[in-house]
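fold-stage: in
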Amino acid sequence: MPFPDGFLFGASTSAHQTEGGNTTSDWWHLENRDGTPLPEPSGDAADSYHRWPVDMDLLAELGFTDYRFGVEWARIEPEPGQFSRAAIAHYRRMVDGALDCGLRPMITLHHFTLPHWFAERGGWAAPDAVDRFARYAAAIAPILGEGVEYVCTINEPNLVAARTAPGALSPPSTGLPLPSAELTETLIAAHRAAGAAVKAIAPAVRTGWSVANQVCQAVPGAEETMLAYRRPREDVFIEAAREDDWIGVQAYTRTRVGRHGPLPVPEGAEVTLTGWEYYPAALGQALRHTAALVGDVPIIVTENGIATRDDHRRVAYTHRALQDLARALADGLDIRGYLHWSALDTYEWGSYRPTFGLIAVDPHSFLRVPKPSARWLGRMARSGTLPPPTL
């Protein structure tokens, strides 16, 4: 079946993972401190802070219509109350650049990284965290002018709430720690406050947030354990979006749950470079679960992809995921778009080894080379129909 007119076909990145030199962020300090638990620092990343025009031109030339990228809070407000006019102007140029080359920009306000000063004050646990985040959202008014239709306030708040230590992100295959109920409430409040701040600036902008879908599956006899496991780690964050303009679904793999909690990847199963089970059916199941919880709220797939060096497996994975998305559309689910993770091979929170990108980046010259999967997916974006899974 053809995809609807106006369907968002694109790719996603985050600021810290692609820009490089994010020196005033908490992650930069974590990466570069003595005894860091991370294998390698982000360094220059893909140098997208300077090379974003190349990235956007490539995506447009490949046939994509949409690009989700991040605004970095640590650059906007490097010190408390000191908002950088230069950084704000930089991100507005990115919005204008996207529009000029035919891409619709989606802006993410928070994608795991925080200003170092904010983290040092307690981060999201600080008593004024909600007010600080809303103030930041209000400060970026010039970025959210004409041409920005979608804003994602917080990327994967359920992973943020489940972080057990600064910088720690747990792969879905190992299960998430139990989020703090207080931190969950704070993130929901921050999301709503930021959304209100954005609406006050630009009433036509559609605000939402993206949830990391765990795709929990109970083994026989573990249904109650699975429900108890999933609710604080996923469902409360999806339900918090019921009053939003849209919700982002982000799905990669599944979490199997036994009577005592999450189970390891099944023996003999194919795994990706992140150690996650190769499970392309995750997307369709995440879409249906999310729709059942949010009701009439439109859904956008803001991340879906696979860390692999085998581009044939990337295409096979994405083809199956998009087949399931098309079936969900045919069944009446209100799905507005699909944004692949990721546009570029990027820094994956401690390592460059997991390659999710549609576009390869040389770490020395920063030369961008589209992979065959990028051209395959671009053909779909141009035609509005799903091509065969062949390169």
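fold-stage: in (second)
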Amino acid sequence: MLRVILFILLIIPVSIQAQRTIKWNGLHLNAIDKQGRKQGEWLFFDKKGNAVMQCSFNNDMVSGPRVFFNNGDTILVRLERKNDREPFIYYYKNQQINGVFAHKGDDFNIELDHIPAGFTAADIRELKRWYAVKIEPVYMFGVERLADYFSAAYYKSNAIPNWHHNFVLTINASGKVTNVEWEEKDELWTANLEREVFDMFYSMGRWQPFFDTWQTQEIKITMSLGADLKAITAR
């Protein structure tokens, strides 16, 4: 299934490729337009670089199905919600199960077209987990290493000393760093250093935005950054 989806991605219109994209395995994915809105086909990855979800965006809103992958195989296809009912296809031990997430307020029930042999309460819990899946922010969608970016940024810097600081980055729903906060500044902090730090963070490549259940959301992550680059941590 993943191979089929990636073949479809090969025929993305040139107008989408001409926008700002992420290059992955020769494909141009995860485009944003000049207004910073998500457009076209997107792939989301875990921190190991494995594809975990594919969907389409139209002016920042999810359009069409969301396809979730588990170890390279399709595990769940969630179709567009109509009123309070969201159809889905769940793949259970090589069996296809059709069902509906029936919403009522903040709660939902699961309706299945049939109960396959061996399907237990634990399997229902696993299906619920896939429904509420959260995909964490990953720098440059995992196609570039965070340490490599900061190594280059430090090399070009004129003012950043050998210090250790914690920063809080705000990453918007399209993966851009929009705000930077830091802990109490020490005696080494200067106006030149502040300009260097701002430039370093705001010049970063896009992050994979945080995806929670249905849409991408703005999120704050904490980053501990040391000049030896061994202390780069996020979230």
